[in-house]
Amino acid sequence: MADQSQSNKEKEDATEEIRFKYIGFDVYPKKPKKFWNSEEEKERYLTQVRRKGVGSALEESEHSLVQAVVFSKIDRVVLTVASLLMTVGLFLPWFSLTGEYYNFRVIGLGYFLKLGDLFGYAALGGPLFSIFVILVGLVIISSFACGVLSLVGLYRKQADSEKYLAGLKKTLKLNLIPLALWVALIVISTIGFSTPFADALKINGFGDGFTVVNFFMLSSYGMWLSLPSVVINCVKIGDL
Fold first, then answer.
1. At residue 210, what are phi and psi to the nearest 5 degrees?
2. Helix, strand, or coil here: 28?
3. CA separation for the pair 84, 19 (Å, rounded)
4. What pLDDT does 58 receive?
């Protein structure tokens, strides 16, 4: 029995010794040599690895489905239509005014021809009326300008897709200007201002004061096409 126990113990020791030699504890008992001959050699290798890694990542991005769906053909068509509507909006009616003896529409470009008459009523309407008149003009001209610039950005020739998308995003950000002007215009209309001249001119849709309700009642399809088009162009900024 004692001999058997001794034999088992020797067998365990042998197995343990073989295991340690197998994994290398006793194969190279001394301190291993340095892998790199110098720090310069190590740095050169790491630089090559980093450079290759960046190149592989860019190449993978260019051929990935994620890159492909960032700006699809549908996106291009939607932005084209929105930008075209912003551009032609300058030549579409923005306001429709009806009175007892007249009925006419004010196109975007024609609005600037009416500024002299509008500012003539500024003293009666107060400072908010003057600000409103200025904001409407800025909305019309900025919507037109951003529509043209967006079309140029959409159809600009650029071989590098990343540079193309970056440039398009930068161009689309300009649409935030007319959007901010639209917000200011609606805020002032919500606050409202007096229009004592409305009764004298007998303009339908006006009362003693002008509110956001009057604003939308007098608006025509040029305005209704321009506002959502600006919003569409601004929404796409976050996707690029």
1. -110, 125
2. coil
3. 77
4. 47
Q: How far is it, in rounded angstroms, from Cα 190 to Cα 213?
A: 8
Is residue 208 a contact partner of residue 172, using CB atoms and an 8 Å limit?
Answer: no
Do 193 and 125 form a contact (C-beta atoms < 8 A)?
Answer: yes
Quick: pLDDT tens for 87-105.
998 899 888 877 666 677 8
Instruction: Please tell me the least confidently modeled range out of 25-39, 49-63, 102-116, 213-227.
Output: 49-63
Residue 65 binned pLDDT confidence (cut-offs 50, 70, 90): very low
User: Of 147, 140, 109, whose CA–CA distance to 233 is shortest?
Assistant: 147
Where exactly are the structural domains of the chain?
2-61, 70-239
Cα separation of the two ends of the chain = 81
- C-alpha distances in Å from residue 35, one per residue of 32, 124, 183: 9, 88, 65
Residue 83 and residue 137 in contact, taking contact as beta carbons nearer than 8 Å: no
List, in sequence order, every residue forming a beta bridge with 106; answer none if it has no partner. Answer: 95
